[in-house]
Design goal:
This protein has no helices and 17 strands. The chain is mostly beta strands and 448 residues long. The protein has a nine-stranded antiparallel β-sheet with strand order 2-5-16-7-8-9-10-11-12, with no helix packed on it. Strand 10 and strand 11 form a beta hairpin. It is globular. The structure holds calcium ion (2 copies). The site of one calcium ion (CA) has 6 residues, from loops. One calcium ion (CA) binds next to loops.
Length: 448
């Protein structure tokens, strides 16, 4: 097999930390990043929410007294520690939705943040006594709509609960969330649902003539909104045209991240078996310098790559150095999900072992119309890749040799680009004749 480190144009990595929105009383927070510790007082959730104290737990766990929907969960009575479903959670009395978190009395919606008494909705955030925004919800007395949640006296009533995506209040409840998962115990440090056309947190480019649309409607997304990356097909182009990530359709975070957990929900770009495109989901940083002084240019990169000619094969690569194809340092695992067979290698040349594991046999992967949640936990001395398949999180690789684990902060990218090589077989791959589209429902990062 063969892996290619990202070779696209350099971009400036803004080394700022996650946004710290959600200051008490602050106004609208557009598609804001969520930072733990945003806490307010008084607002939202009251008592007597849906399932109520003692409610049941969702697939992702629960606090005492909460309840949950698919992928969701609720915290201690929605009260102190109230929490919620995937990616969300809440403070005292809080409740939440996708991407959200909040403080005392808060409630939330997708991509939201909060403030005193506030709560939120998608892309919104508000002040004391909260109120709203499209898709939003509110603080005391507030209320809501789909995806939102409510506070005391809200539409949902005291301790309101919610519709899809959210829930709250004492004993609060929660709605479902396709793709929800764990790590919900704490709010993400950075979270984007791609609900709006806002590009403040992701840059985009489409150097093959394709396009990127943030906030594209998609009924398979948890919130009917995705980032859509279109790779422009062209039947008149051949195998050697517009090669490499130089011509990728790509989005990437404007800031960099370090150790922590990365999760995303993605639908892969497709092509025929005679063509080739790489679907890349990865971290990347390379400023051309040899930071650790080992004679090789540092390349902080953690890759999940799936080629469209045979998307049943998952390639995982961890790069620490990359000067050239012959001066580099990277370890890889290639998993054949039809058989469960895997092979590990160093620098694409030295075998580090192989085998077959029942867990790696993912029958029917990937359904071309499905979104899959995948990601990794990156730490200084270990790196664990995973994918959620059939409702179960499958660990694809736990790598523990610190020498080969990158340490430099990196941006998180998604891209689609043409390769003329089939990494797992011989021959020449054609340029895609038809447009191919990768879709991203959401991306979340939890700082270690
Ligand atoms: Ca180096
Ligand atoms: Ca979304």
């Amino acid at each position: 097999m063969r892996t290619i480190p990202y070779l696209g144009p350099m971009f400036v990595v803004i080394a700022s930390l996650a946004c710290t929105n959600g200051k008490a009383g602050s106004g609208r927070v557009g598609d804001a990043a969520v930072v733990s510790g945003d806490v307010g007082t008084g607002g939202g959730a009251g008592t007597g929410g849906s399932p109520g104290v003692g409610g049941s737990a969702g697939a992702t766990g629960a606090g005492s007294g909460g309840s949950a929907g698919a992928g969701g969960n609720a915290g201690a009575g929605g009260g102190a520690g109230g929490s919620v479903k995937a990616d969300a959670n809440a403070g005292t009395g809080g409740g939440a939705g996708a991407d959200v978190s909040m403080g005392t009395g808060g409630g939330g919606g997708a991509d939201a943040s909060r403030s005193t008494g506030g709560s939120t909705g998608r892309d919104a955030g508000l002040g004391s006594g909260g109120n709203t925004h499209a898709d939003a919800s509110l603080g005391t007395g507030g209320s809501v709509r789909t995806d939102a949640s409510a506070g005391t006296g809200g539409i949902m009533g005291t301790g309101g609960s919610a519709a899809a995506d959210v829930g709250t209040g004492t004993g609060g409840s929660v709605g479902g969330d396709a793709g929800g998962s764990l790590d919900a115990a704490t709010p993400p440090t950075f979270s984007v649902d791609f609900i709006t056309a806002d590009q403040s947190r992701f840059y985009s480019r489409a150097d093959n003539g394709g396009s990127v649309t943030f906030g594209a409607a998609n009924s398979s997304a948890a919130d009917n909104a995705v980032a859509e990356l279109v790779f422009k097909g062209n039947a008149s182009l051949g195998p050697g045209d517009k090669l490499t990530p130089d011509y990728a359709t790509e989005i990437g975070t404007n800031q960099s991240f370090s150790y922590g957990t990365y999760r995303t929900r993605v639908q892969l770009a497709q092509c025929s078996s005679s063509e080739e495109l790489v679907n890349g989901v990865f971290t990347y940083f390379n400023d051309g310098k040899d930071h650790d002084g080992d004679g090789l240019i540092d390349n902080s990169e953690i890759d999940i790559e799936i080629l469209c000619s045979d998307p049943s094969i998952i390639s995982l690569t961890i790069w620490t150095e990359y000067t050239s194809d012959t001066a580099k340092q990277g370890v890889s695992r290639v998993i054949h999900t039809m058989t469960g067979a895997y092979e590990d290698s160093l620098n694409d040349t030295t075998s580090l072992g192989s085998g077959t594991l029942p867990d790696f046999k993912l029958a029917g992967f990937p359904d071309p119309n499905a979104f899959y949640e995948m990601g990794f936990e990156w730490h200084a001395t270990s790196l664990r890749y995973f994918i959620v398949f059939g409702g179960k999180e499958v660990t694809l690789w736990t790598y523990t040799d610190a020498k080969y684990i990158p340490s430099l902060p990196a941006a998180f990218l998604f891209n689609v680009w043409h390769s003329t090589d089939w990494w797992s077989s011989q021959g020449t791959a054609d340029y895609p004749a038809s447009d191919a589209v990768m879709r991203v429902d959401w991306f979340r990062y939890w700082k270690e």
